[in-house]
Each structure stands twice: as C-alpha cells, then as structure tokens.
Amino acid sequence: MADVPVRVEERLKIKIGEAKQLQPRSNLSSVTRDVYCTLSLDQEEIYRTKTAEKTLNPFFGEEYQFEVPRDFRYISIYLFDRDKHLKQNKVLGKVAIKREELASYNNRDHWFAIKPVDADSEVQGKVNIELKFTSSFQKHKNVTNYGRNDRLSVQVVKCLDLTLKNGACDPYAVACVTYTNRKTVSKRTKVRKKTTCPQFDEVLTFDAYEGKDGLCGDGEVEICELNVSIWHDAPGMGDNVFLGEVRVQLSGIQQQNAAPRNAWYFLQPRSAKNRPSFTYSTPPGTRLSQDNSLGSLRLQVQYNEDRVFPAEIYESLRSLLLKSVQTKPITSSAVYVLGEIISSKTEIAQPLVRIFMHHGQIVPIIKALADAEISMLTDPTTIFRGNTLVSKMMDEAMRLIGLQYLHKTLRPTIELIFNERKPCEIDPTRVRDSNTVQTNLNNLKTYVLKVFKAITQSAVHCPALMCQIFYNLKECAMKRFPENKEVRYSVISGFIFLRFFAPAILGPRLFDLTNEQIDNQINRTLTLISKTIQSLGNLVSCRSSQQVCKEEYMESLYKEFYTDTHVTAVRQFLEIISAISNPENRDNDTPVTLKEGLMIKRAQGRKRFGRKNFKQRYFKLTTHSLSYAKSKGKEALCQIPLSNILAVERLTEKSFKMKNMFQIVQDGRTLYVQAANCVEEKEWVDLLTKMCQTNQNRLNQYHPCAFINGKWSCCESFNELAPGCSKVSSTDSNNFHITLDPERELQRIHSLIISHMNQLEIIMCQPETFLKGILQFKTYGLQDVKDCFIVLRELRDVAVKIETKHNSYMRTLARDTKYGSLAAPIGDDNYLLASRMNLDSLLLRR
Predict the structure, then answer these.
(1) How many Cβ atoms from other residues are within 10 Å of residue 42's Cβ?
(2) Residue limits of the PH domain (predicted)?
C-alpha cells in the first residue's frame, strides 16, 4: 500500500450561532457593543459575519462551508467590537479549535468559552532548522591557553506559511543561544522581503568561549539551549513584529560531535521569559473551559477529512450502490438501507447524489425512492414533508443542477434589494413609528411582486434534468392519490418554492447570490420575502389566505397575491417545469453571473509601453465571460470570453512573492490575479477551470511561474512563447457548476458506514424487525427478509474490505513518517496523538 496514491480531502461547515455575556464597554456613552466575527484558518481571515449592533448578546446565525485548500492547525473565530466613534475595531477575544479536535464536535451545537487574544501567541507556520556541532582545540581571545572549543552552526533553512502583518511579511530570523552559566548570545539573518516562505542562506555560528565571562572563565561552558525566533521587519510600526519561535534543548548534544541535525518545527507562541512585561501568555488553541469571563460563543461544526484511494479500491462499493436502481423492491437496495441506517440524512444524501449524477442515474434512483415513500402514505398533504432520504437527495440535486437557473432568476432582484436598502418591516411591534408601516408594506409588495414574476416567468429556463425529476414526482403522486386534483401541483411546489427558491432568498450568501454583508434591515426584508414566497407556493393547495397566514400583520400582503391571476400563474409555472417535453430552446444569450468580488490583478501588457503594476479590480464571472472593472457597477475595463481561456492554474509564490495567486492563460498573454484568501483562490480556480474545461484549444502544459525579467522563473527559458513545463490540472467533464469527484464521495460513504457499523451489525441480527419498521403497514415475505439480509451483509463486507486497505496504509504511513519531517513537525502533539489514535483504532477493530 505504500505506493498507492492517496490524497487527503477536507470539507468544513461551521455555523456561528450567537455569543452571550460579552463584557460591556468601559465608557459611559454606550455600554453595549457592535459585534462581528471573523472565521480564520490559523491567522488567515476567510469569512466575516454581519455586525450585530448595540448588544452584549449578539446573534449571528450565519453558516459557512468550504473545501479546505491547505494545511492548518486551528480554526479560529475572532470577535470584534466596531466602535464608530473611535473609528477602529477592537478585538474582544477568540475561540480556536485544534484541527484534530474538530470532528469531536460534529453535528451538534456547542458553547465555547471566549479567550483573550495575545499578539505574541497569534502565530502560524513551520521552520526548518539545521544544527551542526564541531569541536576543536585552539587559542582564542580572552583565554590564556589552548582549550577545546565547541562550535554550534545554526542555519534557518526555510519557513513556510508565516503570518501576514497588515498585509505584509518581511521576515528575518534571530538565533539566541543560552550557555550553562546563563549568558546569552544572539545573532540574526538578513531580511527577506515580501514572502511568507523565506529561504535563508546564512549560517550563524556560536562558540563556547563566547559564553565565558572574560579572563576568569576557565571552567567548561556549554551551549544548553537554542531559541530561534522569526520576526517581521516593520520600521514604520515602531517595534518589529513577532511571528513565532522555536526552543531546542541542546544540553549534552555537543559532546557527541554528531552529523548535522535537520528538522522541521512548528512555530510556537512567545515564551514567558522572552515577553515584555506588559504582555501575558495565552495558548494558541482554545479548549473548553469553565472560565467564561469574556463570554461564550455557540458554534455548530461539521468537519470531514477523507483519505481518498484510487477508483479501483471502491469498485465493489460503487457497483453495489449503482445496482440499487434495478433492485426490486427498492427497500432491499443498498441506497435505501443506507438511508435508514445513517442517522443524518443530509450527510448520506450529498455523496449519493454526486455519485449517481456522475453516472447519469440520478433521475431513476430518485424516482424509485419517491415511489417507495409515496406508496407508504395515506395523506397527500404529508408528501415529502419529513426529512427523509429522498427529500434530502432532492434538495442536493436541485442545488447542483439548478444553481445557474437560480442565479438567473433571483440575482437581479436580490441585487436591487441590496442597492436600494428600502425598509420593509410591517410588524407594528418592530417599528418605532407606526405611520411607516404602510410605506414599508408598499416596498415589500414591490419586491415580492418582482420575485414572483421572476419565478413564474422562468419556467423555460428550468434545467431539463430538474424537469424530468419533477415529472416523475408528479406521476408518482397522481398514481397514488388519483382522486386528489391538487396533488399534481403540491408535490412540485413543496420542492421548488419551499426548498429551492425560499431558502436561497433567506440565505443568498449560501447560494452565492451575493458576497455582500447582510445587515439587520436587509436580513429582515429577505425573511419577509422568503415567508411570502413559501406561502405563494401553497396557493395551489389552499382555499383561503387564512390557511397560509399565521401572523396577522402578514394577512394584508397575502390577500394582495391570493387572486385567481396569481394562482393561475403558479399552476402554469408548475405544469411547465414538470412536463417531460420541456422545450430545450433555452435563452442562452442571457449571461448568468456565477461569481464576483474584489481581487488584485497585474497588468496584462496589452499596451506596448507602461509598467505592469498591480491594481485592485472588481471581477465578475458569467456563463459567457470573465470581466473586471474599477468597482462594482462600473463599466468593464476588460472582458475575456470564456472560449478564449486556454488554462487556469495556480501561480507559485516565488513569482511575485505574493500568496493566493493564480493565472488565466489566453492566447499571447496571461492575466495574473491575487485572491483575498486561500479559500477564495480555490473557488475561483475551480469554477473557472470548470467553465473552460471543454474549450477545444485548452492547453496541455503550462508554466507554474511567471515570465519575469526576460525569462520563465520555472524552467529558465528565455522564450516567452515557450511551451509549458508542467501538466495542466485535469477535471471530469459534466454539465454542472462543480466538478464531481466520485472517488471522494465513495470514500465519504465508506466513512459513514464504518461509523455506523454497530447499527448495521445489530440490524443484521434482526432483519425482520428492521423491515417491519421501514415498511410500516405494508406486507412483506420471507424473500424480502432474505434480500434485506444479503444487502446488509454486502455493505458490511465491502466496508471491511476498504477499511483493511486504510489500516494497511495508515500503518505504513506511521512507520515511514519521521517525527521532525515536514509531514510531522516537532513542537506539537498532532503526530504522536494521531499515531496513538490510529493504533488504538486498529486494536479495537481486531
């Protein structure tokens, strides 16, 4: 297993709920605070919440999910107080969760104590240090006779992933040795400009006699400790900024006169004895604590780390899952059984949908599952109302298939709401002046009408795959409840309105409909519109507005839209999107915005003369082109058709000494772009690659470095038109906005089976009881029990087979990984803890 290529994929979803009992401000003008949070990978800010104003118990309720693009040690959530009068943001504290502890908080809310933030403990990164001891007899200064001299040679070879301070990093290293007589000697390297991954060529030497105190120092003096600290050179900020340090105990080592010792270390917070008197010590990670003096923060975390093997390892599991489409009855299939065993239906639905979409089987598997669920119901009003496997698979399928359709339909109105910022509050208990309610109601009606028209007039743009699924659902419901004339509409409206459009309106950032911060007023406007759209989806099955109206203040708004005209429009819309002969002549001439935001770009050299400097621009990616302008809403300065893009690849940091850069290769020129953070960089690269992967002239090779000073930095070629020296990234081709990765999804399913192995073993002992529970009132025979037992056994055997491969790989990895290597740096218990946990898990499985 040592030669098997294995990749590690990480996915994080975190919901920042609320904070409680924050400390009040000290000034008398206002004791409350305006609070917001930032979510960071180590010290790199990734997301920022809205600001909760005038409160010591702020509620955020914001959820973020992303693929983790790089290695990290901590997920940190910092709380800030925005002081409008002082025009500065003050950090209130933080919650930091160690990477190895994230999974222990999965799928449940947890309150974390907010800890103080200390600048000297805000460190990240690794450092590679090489030590060499030599001994010789020589006469040296201040010593009257010859004696043995122990010399320590220190080379700080390289650092990785240092912290940016105010957007810059000009690092240098300081090596300080402590002698047995407590004397210290320090030496430093030169400054390396504009890099978070500096390489130092200097060797710093320390002699034993340097530790002696003048002429009286005839006794033996040894070097007992080395402290290597990394600093950011900041002449304009007063003192230089601490970036981290490493302490190495050396007592007795110099006597061995051994070969050079080369090791990687995690940078650590500043030790207490090296701190100025006004600072205090805080560990970089935050564990649960009873000390809530700074308040507490409620978080919900979902972290998945998967080691993905090549496709052939998962072939048996893949075949077993795909066989579910032909299995009769579907209740004896692997997919259905997994939906009953796995407690979180969302967790199992997401990988299942991606696997079946990759193999073109998503329509038949959802149809089979829907048939089974609807056949067990006696009340048509309860169809898909619960969190069942098929309803969660529908949610995921609509999100994957229909994202561009969602953007085309809702984005114009969402942007209008953010631009106009008109108040729409109609609850009399929430407004100061009751005379404003009517004006607010008119504003709300305008927005709801725009959204309603956008949705009901968008039927011809609904993706054909979604239409096929809706058609099947309608046919299943009509077959089960032929006497109910409204079920043909309600079964579709329950998905398209309640579970597709309404959630996107309520949380536009989750669906990439906006990247702007959502303040309290806009959040309330979106909430009211979402509630109204949900109710409009029920128009086709309700006889009066009272049936959809729960709040008295909403009744007048509902009455405005409860007319025959609106009911007819909803029904026509539902009929079109659930028609199997849905027209294919989509209006592809209208571009749909997929992603937008501020980035920094380097001039492309379109002008013959002029400097190629870096400037901030507002980028917008649509289904047709990539463009950038000076700011949002301004006319595009440059527009690149997607068909002209030959490759989209990451750029190495050494090109411009800037992080999070990527390149967009066109015919004859290359656009270099810097994203705001590592997550943004990955999302832009992945989406652009996805949109351009079918271009006929796409490159096979590219240059991972830039063409600077007359040559390519990667291959040293002086020919600017020289073919690339590295192979471009490969992706799977499909018609969706993401790249499907079936092996990763199969590994996710395997992990879920392993985590539920106890439940599976119990059910195997009682398959008849299991069938009785899932089939409810339906009858079943002996053959059904046998089929159920067979699929349970197949799932167990396949999972055990794959787990055996994992165990073999982990044993090999633990054996071959050296403590102190780049993969397992010294200075943290991560490596030792992981090794111990892997050993314990292997023993338990035996």
Answers:
(1) 20
(2) 592-693
Alpha helices, DSSP H, located in 601-657: none
Residue 20 pLDDT > 90, yes or no? yes
> Tokens 């950038």 identify what position?
628
Phi, psi (degrees; rounded to nearest 5) at 39: -105, 125
Taking the C-alpha atoms of residue 721 and residue 700, their distance in angstroms, rounded to an integer, is 15
Which two structure tokens, joined as six digits, stand for 815? 């054996």
What pLDDT digit, counting tens, does each position of 775-819 carry? 554 544 556 677 878 888 999 999 999 999 999 999 988 888 888
Task: With residue 618 as reference, give the H or E element that holds it.
Answer: strand 614-622
Candidates 661, 682, 688, 687; CA nearest to 672 is 661
Tens of pLDDT, residues 125-151: 999 999 988 876 555 555 554 455 678
pLDDT at res. 835: 46
Question: CA triplet 576, 577, 582: central angle to 5 degrees?
Answer: 70
Strands, E, within 21-57: which ranges? 33-41, 44-48, 52-55
For the CA atoms of 156, 713, 612, 658, the dihedral, rounded to the nearest 10 degrees, stands at -30
Q: Is the pLDDT of residue 213 over 80?
A: no
What pLDDT, on the 0 to 100 scale, is given for residue 254? 53
Say whether the peptide bond before residue 329 is cis (omega within 30 degrees of 0). yes
- Spatial distance between the Cα atoms of 312 and 300, rounded to a whole number of angstroms: 35
Q: Which of 156-165, 326-335, 794-803 has the highest mean pLDDT?
A: 794-803
Question: What single DSSP character describes residue 223?
Answer: E
**Identity at 840, one-letter amino acid code:** D
CA distance 227 to 83: 39
CA dihedral 227, 72, 88, 119 (to 10 degrees): -20
Task: State how far the Cα of 618 lies from the Cα of 635, in Å rounded to an integer.
Answer: 10
| Sequence-ordered list of residues with C-beta below 8 angstroms from that of 545, at least 6 positions apart, any chain | 555, 558, 559, 562
Tokens of 733: 């081709």
Percentage of the chain surpassing pLDDT 90?
Answer: 44
- The Cα–Cα gap between 32 and 52 comes to 11
Sign of the four-CA dihedral 340, 341, 345, 348 = negative
- Whole-angstrom Cα distance, residue 334 to residue 795? 7
Q: What is the band of 838 on the pLDDT scale with cuts at 50, 70, 90?
A: very low
Calculate ∠ Cα 109-115-120, nearest 5°: 135
